[in-house]
Amino acid sequence: MLKRLVVSVLLFLASVNAGAFEYTDVYFDRAEPGWGVFLVQSDTTQFLAFFIYGPDGKPTWYTAELKQDAAGNYNGPVYAITGTYFANPWQGYNIAAVGTASFEPADSYRATLRYSITGHAPVVKPVERQTLTPYPLAGSYSGSMSGTVSACADPTGNNAHFRGRYNLTVTKTGDAASALTFTFVDTDNSGIVCTVTGPLTHLGRLYKLTSGQFSCTGQGLNPAPTPATIDSYHPTGQGIEGRLTTTTPDGCNLSLRFAAVLNN
C-alpha cells in the first residue's frame, strides 16, 4: 500500500492538460530587451498589455483579450486605446479593434507571441517569463498531493488515484538550488519520507528544478535515488506549490501535483 501510494502521488501531474496552467507574468524576448507584454490570466481568458514602439520610436499602447482554444493556445482581438491626458480631469477614453493576437505556450515558461496590427507587418516573437527578483521558498509547510502511477513492471503497483498529506521542509541555496523533504502523516502513508534536491532555473514567477534527485524511504521502498524534475515551482499567497515527475527504481512512471501552506 505504501509503495503504491508513493507511486500514485507522482503521475497525476503528467496528465494535467494545458487548461490547468496559469501564465500570468511579464514576458519578453531575451534577444530584444526594451519591449514586452504584461499578461494576466483569469481561468481560460488572458488580458495582455503591450509595451512596444510605433514607427516614430515612441511608446505605443495596445491591449488584447484572448480566449483559450482546444489546442491550449490563446487567440483574440487587439485594441488601440486613447484617453484623457493624465494631468487633466478624466473625460473618458476611446477603444477600437485594430488587429489580432495569439499566445501559444511551448511549456509553462515560454511561448510564441503573434500579433497583427492593421497597416503593419505581422509580428512573431519567442517570449519567456521575465525574472525580476528571487523568491523566498525556504520554510516549514503542511500540505497535500494527488497523483497516479503507471507503467510499473509489477502491474499491482499501478494506481489511478492517490491522496496524501504531509509535512514539508524546504531549503534554498541562494537562487541556485533547492531541497524538499515530504514527510507523510496520513494513515495510509505514515512512515514514508521523500526527498527531492536539485539546481534551480528562475523564470519570472516560476522556478524549474532540473537534473534533480528523488528518493523515498519507508516500508518496502527502494531508497535508491532517481532523476527528477519539478515544474511550476513557486510560492503562493499562503505557501508553495509545484509539479514533480520522476521514475522509481523499479520503473514506475510518477507525476505529482503538490501544494502546502506555510506554518507560522
Topology, element by element:
Elements: H1 2-11, E1 25-28, E2 36-42, E3 45-53, E4 59-68, E5 74-83, E6 93-105, E7 110-117, E8 123-129, E9 139-150, E10 163-173, E11 177-184, E12 193-203, E13 206-217, E14 226-235, E15 239-247, E16 253-262
Antiparallel strand pairs: 1-2, 1-8, 2-3, 3-4, 4-5, 5-6, 6-7, 7-8, 9-10, 9-16, 10-11, 11-12, 12-13, 13-14, 14-15, 15-16
How does this model look, in words?
- The protein is mainly beta.
- The protein has one helix at 2-11; strands at residues 25-28, 36-42, 45-53, 59-68, 74-83, 93-105, 110-117, 123-129, 139-150, 163-173, 177-184, 193-203, 206-217, 226-235, 239-247, 253-262.
- The longest helix has 10 residues, at 2-11.
- The model is unreliable at 1-20 (pLDDT under 50).
Major sheet details: 8 strands, antiparallel, barrel
**What is the percent of helical residues?**
under 10%
User: DSSP helix count?
Assistant: 1
CATH topology of the largest domain, anyone?
Lipocalin
N-to-C CA distance:
32 Å
Write down the overall geometry: elongated
Q: Kindly give the count of domains.
A: 2
Order of strands, widest sheet:
1-2-3-4-5-6-7-8
What's the helix-strand series? HEEEEEEEEEEEEEEEE
Mean pLDDT: 90
**Radius of gyration, CA atoms, in whole angstroms:** 22 Å
Q: Number of DSSP strands?
A: 16
CATH architecture of the largest domain: Beta Barrel
The CATH first-level class of the largest domain comes to Mainly Beta
> Beta fraction of the residues?
over 45%
Structural class: mainly beta
User: Which blocks of ≥5 consecutive residues have pLDDT under 50?
Assistant: 1-20
